[in-house]
Amino acid sequence: MFLADLLTTVFERRYLSKGADKADDRPLEALVADLIGATGEVSGQNLARQILSRYGALNDEEKRAFFRHLAEGLAVSAPAVRSALEHYEKGQSKASYREFMEAVEPPRQELIRRLNQVPDATRLLVGMREDLLRLSKGDDVLQALDLDFRHLFASWFNRGFLVLRPINWESPAQLLEKIIAYEAVHAIDSWSDLRRRLEPVDRRCFAFLHPAMPDEPLIFVEVALTKGIPGSIQGLLAENRTQIEADTADTAVFYSISNCQAGLAGISFGNSLIKQVAADLSLELPKLKTFVTLSPIPGLVRWLDGEGIDHGSADEDTLRKLAARYLMTAKRKDGLPLDPVARFHLGNGALVHQVHAGADLSDKGMKQSAGVMVNYLYDLEKVTQNHERFASIRTIAASSEIKSLSTAGENAFTLELSALN
Amino acid sequence: MFLADLLTTVFERRYLSKGADKADDRPLEALVADLIGATGEVSGQNLARQILSRYGALNDEEKRAFFRHLAEGLAVSAPAVRSALEHYEKGQSKASYREFMEAVEPPRQELIRRLNQVPDATRLLVGMREDLLRLSKGDDVLQALDLDFRHLFASWFNRGFLVLRPINWESPAQLLEKIIAYEAVHAIDSWSDLRRRLEPVDRRCFAFLHPAMPDEPLIFVEVALTKGIPGSIQGLLAENRTQIEADTADTAVFYSISNCQAGLAGISFGNSLIKQVAADLSLELPKLKTFVTLSPIPGLVRWLDGEGIDHGSADEDTLRKLAARYLMTAKRKDGLPLDPVARFHLGNGALVHQVHAGADLSDKGMKQSAGVMVNYLYDLEKVTQNHERFASIRTIAASSEIKSLSTAGENAFTLELSALN
Amino acid sequence: MFLADLLTTVFERRYLSKGADKADDRPLEALVADLIGATGEVSGQNLARQILSRYGALNDEEKRAFFRHLAEGLAVSAPAVRSALEHYEKGQSKASYREFMEAVEPPRQELIRRLNQVPDATRLLVGMREDLLRLSKGDDVLQALDLDFRHLFASWFNRGFLVLRPINWESPAQLLEKIIAYEAVHAIDSWSDLRRRLEPVDRRCFAFLHPAMPDEPLIFVEVALTKGIPGSIQGLLAENRTQIEADTADTAVFYSISNCQAGLAGISFGNSLIKQVAADLSLELPKLKTFVTLSPIPGLVRWLDGEGIDHGSADEDTLRKLAARYLMTAKRKDGLPLDPVARFHLGNGALVHQVHAGADLSDKGMKQSAGVMVNYLYDLEKVTQNHERFASIRTIAASSEIKSLSTAGENAFTLELSALN
Amino acid sequence: MFLADLLTTVFERRYLSKGADKADDRPLEALVADLIGATGEVSGQNLARQILSRYGALNDEEKRAFFRHLAEGLAVSAPAVRSALEHYEKGQSKASYREFMEAVEPPRQELIRRLNQVPDATRLLVGMREDLLRLSKGDDVLQALDLDFRHLFASWFNRGFLVLRPINWESPAQLLEKIIAYEAVHAIDSWSDLRRRLEPVDRRCFAFLHPAMPDEPLIFVEVALTKGIPGSIQGLLAENRTQIEADTADTAVFYSISNCQAGLAGISFGNSLIKQVAADLSLELPKLKTFVTLSPIPGLVRWLDGEGIDHGSADEDTLRKLAARYLMTAKRKDGLPLDPVARFHLGNGALVHQVHAGADLSDKGMKQSAGVMVNYLYDLEKVTQNHERFASIRTIAASSEIKSLSTAGENAFTLELSALN
């Protein structure tokens, strides 16, 4: 890696800078126009490099103007589409379809593809979209532009191009510092903390990477190997906990899943992560029989509050019932669960397995979910069936215990409400 | 690699086959419909695997039917496009643009992306397009379908995703046998022959690879390090030639460039190959000053014949003049050179440097070009300028020697013609 | 690898050649004396490089003289040893032991260690010993010198420094051509033949490598995955055989084990190879239950002839009995089995499991063992116990079938002998 | 790496533990005797594993007893040596030399080699010697035992087996934490501090590694790329310093060299490190012309104090003169420089180039050398010659400036002394 990079770098300095690569001080829009019109890779790469470099130096206002230029100046031409559509309707030939395809794709999509010709461009373009998402709030025109980025990224970050890699204490520091930065569920506060999550024989971590940006994890999951299903995140992560031999574990607990790239929002690739990790672990550790999460319930308190339920003094038993009720019955308008984490795991084919009170005593955990956490269970032989029922008829798969708790929760619920009256 | 593959394989056998992955004997069209309609990756991967597997077992007639189904059954809906276009024209909002984007993309594009979710799918889809190109001859409907493959592949095989790798005697046998199979210019007839092109210290080979099909070269170039510019391919490849120390060479000769994937026809990625290889070699061997090809002139004889010139008895001097004249003046209707190899190198920014008679005495060489070969010169500091002039105003860059020869060739030409009369 | 090599090479050319590294035309003995006396690595590396280079250009007569110089000129000094021994006996201090150690080690050992300071030296020194073994036949003085090489190599090629690697169709061509060259049991006659042994899913190959000579296998084993124990090598290797899925195999057959380095003769590292390969395969393919060899019996015919048994017309049943008898009872003076292959596998803890007549119909197979082959069985839970009994009290572990055959063989034997009388 | 380790681990658990590998509760001495007497690798590996594991659990008293057993119970037998020597003197045959070699090598050397058969043994044996060096202080018998370890390690860690690797922010965290721990010259106090030394484009680090303990650096050097020769370590390492582009640097400064393995004390492999790093950097950065250290002068103050020179109030100019004088003239009894760092660099062929006052204002720097530091210059074309003169006739190579300063220092010295009288 080191030497390959070196060669590339040295070359670029030595040759590219000599000739056409010298800074072009025309307006960025002119460079963009040139790149779209460029007839070959030779000049295209120089232009792409310059545009990306110039973009990197823009302030937010200038970025907004740049995006607006793409959105308005490089949009599809409705008359051209109309004309192409008419030709296509008259006769569906290769020629008419080609005209149609060319008309319906806005030039900015070709621009983004051409920008991607140079080293490191993919990472920079993901960063560009991160800017766009931030700057397009409330701006319908820029939000439309984002659809083009999203369309291309869905193609580029297609599941077939992603690579699953174990992340451990042997991984490059460069990658590990990203894990520290991106952990979104239970913050990692130092390299020592990171080490406690990666190095012990009963801990694992896996990430999806894309070959064009190999130092940037896209999504990662942290796993604890345990005997039995744990009911407390603080217990699971305690510094003084007792380690076990990995091959004596019967359970793999997915206790944290973090998306890393704001610029890839809406591009789905996490769905198969847990399933694939579970598979790899099964092979390595044949005694593993249970694959569960230990997940937050981020919407619980808000929902309880919205329902007018005073949970502040609820005992643990009541909290579990209320949580089960929430997970099983609280829905959005489209019929999907209200809780975003539940939507993710149920959508993957997991089932709601257990709920634990007093499971997350952190400030965030108490505030969001009154300390309650949930295990979603991945039964590898049932995930497809669960997924399909969930996707088609919104059935929430759950253990019989959760179902009982939820029913009991209805009573607790009624009780609470009646107590209020 | 070996173990990673193993893990994946074992898992798929162990888990996936248990449940939903069992063979689905519904018609292929039904599986395709399901995959397009699938709501998540979980069932999507199973379907993709089955469709690719089923496709692999089809005969040509069945493949043609499969393609026809994609072409006709999964095309864009003109009324939907028209309706979306009208909404978009009324107000260019995110919502109207999303409707437009969804309407103008035929479902078969999403199908191809979803097929690409499983391991090895990229290679299989490139193979599928190879079938399509073969089976669509004279079939305008299938040729239109090819535009969708081409559109997606242009995105997937974007230059930014390709990796340049040296190919040498330390490379995997699996990759090397592909080099033997794909060499298109000067055939490699055995492993010993291959070894003579890869192992000597004055020989090099480089290929572009794509991370999703790492065992399949996309394009490769073979290089000889020499003192001075060679004028004979048989001399360059002679078994008993004298090797030189690489660091005493002043010239790198690109004597063979081969595209490998018929299924990637029309997807451009070769243009930057020579330039990048020249750069890497420059760094390694600072004494290298000259980067040239030793190229066939495949259209020479046909053109001479077409012009009614009897070259059978021409002496070497005359042949060189005629070749220079051909390269400098023979054009297609669009003003580009008639010779395809000339188009490629001039389009990359090279210039016509020298021509050699008696340079390729093979049957093919004698038949195509009366034994004449040409050196195109890559001057790294001028490729951009050459390229741009060629692309914009069709200027063919050439050495003064070639220009003189070409002018002299005009006389030779006139002479020949007058001799005929 | 490629770039690292490049860096080293370029550096050596650029710097080392400038100064002290220029060819030193003093006698080789003078360079040797200098290297032994050199006070540091700086000049030592230059000397080492020159000596190795000069050695490489010697003819056999000169090599013999070089070895004789090492043997006689750089031997231990008996008076110095005697003096050191006396000091040591008087008082076993650090100082006296240091004097003793210095006295008893001949300077040529330090010479060999110092030669090993430069890149690729290990491989060259192994080659040097190969020369020595060849040239020392019948020369007791040179054979004594070999003990020093052997002593150092036993340290350098200590089992703890070796690396087990799978060899497959993805391995470097450079390594694969060595496999072709070194196969000693059943010759590989082309790259296609090699491919048939490496690429099918039911074939494997593993080698021990040393990090200092990574392109040179030290020993390798070829494995066939089968259902049931095969009884014919030609059947096992037949071009038109039916492949099976690896995960349906119940048996791994070690059908060829080849030592690669003549210069490492007598350095043991093969003993753990089969055991370790069996372990790796077990993990990958849990259905594998049986680990056997399909081995030649190279001494059978010679023994039968020696015993005066006319086996030419023996039927298959009789041949099996005679083979079993040979393997179970034919011994050397030291009580170990007469058959070298039997000694190797029994020494590793295997047991004699089955014998097959008509199992190797090649010329070599018919000539050496009348076509009979044997399976040695590696029962991973019993190898230690088998090994220890064999090593301590010469017990040959065998299946009950073999024991019966051997007893029957005694009769056959008597019968044959009586038939002769 | 990860999967390979996994395979090994799983295997060892699965198979080795079943049979002979169960804990053997006989005295450690009995296991040692068994291992020396073991007839093959099969049982030897089990014994080696157990001995190393048992050793790891010993306390210091028990370790001392274990070492005493090796030192006294597994020593050479003087009578056997005497007898072998007599045979050898009578006739220098292979047989008599073999007897001699066997007699003069104590069984504990074979023991150490056999312990090295199992994974990770090399690292454990290096740790064992670290214990031995610590526990053998003042114990002549144990110190003699150390000679055996040292003898074997000199063979195992022969320069030809070491690998030079760049250490950077892409290196495994596991390796980087060792760099933090082992930095012996200018302490690294956090991961952020480490990052400042590795990640900037004008900083480099290189280490020698051994393939059998790939996570353990043996020695490493930290390098700063600068314009001109720096005269202050605090300036060089300042957080707010200005970075430069690597390819604009003309000087590489080796500002810290740390040995990492106490258990490899006395095994030389650092001598070629700087020379080789200088070579690699030269290739990468052709503008680099000067290779210097920025080194402490650890013995300066002690020497000044010993000489009775009151340096407390000396001005910077005087300090430089005194330092030059110290480096050029202060010698040990054997004629080598008194200063250990000077011995190292001069022994490598460097010359004393410049001295700087106020160059190390840390507590340690002020206390050891009154803040003075020195640049040793590596002139790649002169290192061999410098080295040889230094090694043979103790000539200290120095710049003319240093020579002048040293002469002036003599006066300063006399002055100081006269001032005292």
3D structure, described in words:
The structure is a homotetramer of 421-residue chains. Chain A has 421 residues and is α+β, with helices and mostly antiparallel strands. Chain A folds into 2 domains: 2-156, Butyryl-CoA Dehydrogenase, subunit A, domain 3 (Up-down Bundle), CATH 1.20.140.90; 161-420, 3-Layer(aba) Sandwich (Aminopeptidase). Chain A contains 19 helices and 7 strands. A 5-stranded mixed beta sheet of chain A has the order 1-2-3-4-5, sandwiched between helices. In chain A, helix 13 (273-284) links the parallel strand 4 and strand 5 (290-293). Mean pLDDT of chain A is 89; it is low at 1-20. Chains B and D meet through helix 1 of B and helix 1 of D.
Features:
421 residues, alpha+beta, Butyryl-CoA Dehydrogenase, subunit A, domain 3, Aminopeptidase, 2 domains, two-stranded antiparallel sheet, 7 strands, globular, disordered N terminus
Radius of gyration of chain A, in Å, reads: 26 Å
The average pLDDT of chain A is 89
Broad CATH class of the largest domain in chain A: Alpha Beta
Q: State the largest interface.
A: A-B, 78 and 79 residues
Provide the domain count of chain A.
2
Read across the widest sheet of chain A, the strand sequence of neighbours is 1-2-3-4-5
Under CATH, the topology of the largest domain in chain A can be stated as: Aminopeptidase
* Count of helical regions of chain A: 19
Coarse structural class of chain A: alpha+beta
User: What profile does the largest beta sheet of chain A have?
Assistant: 5 strands, mixed
Relative helix content of chain A:
40-55%
| SSE string of chain A, helices as H and strands as E | HHHHHHHHHEHHEEHEHEHHHEHEHH
The N- to C-terminal Cα distance of chain A equals 69 Å
Quantity of strands of chain A, as a count: 7
Share in β-strands of chain A: 5-15%
CATH superfamily of the largest domain in chain A: Malonyl-CoA decarboxylase, catalytic domain
Organism (chains A, B, C, D): Roseibium algicola
InterPro entries (chains A, B, C, D): Malonyl_CoA_deC, Malonyl_CoA_deC_C, Malonyl_CoA_deC_C_sf, MCD_N, MCD_N_sf
Protein name (chains A, B, C, D): Decarboxylase
Pfam family, one (chains A, B, C, D): MCD_N
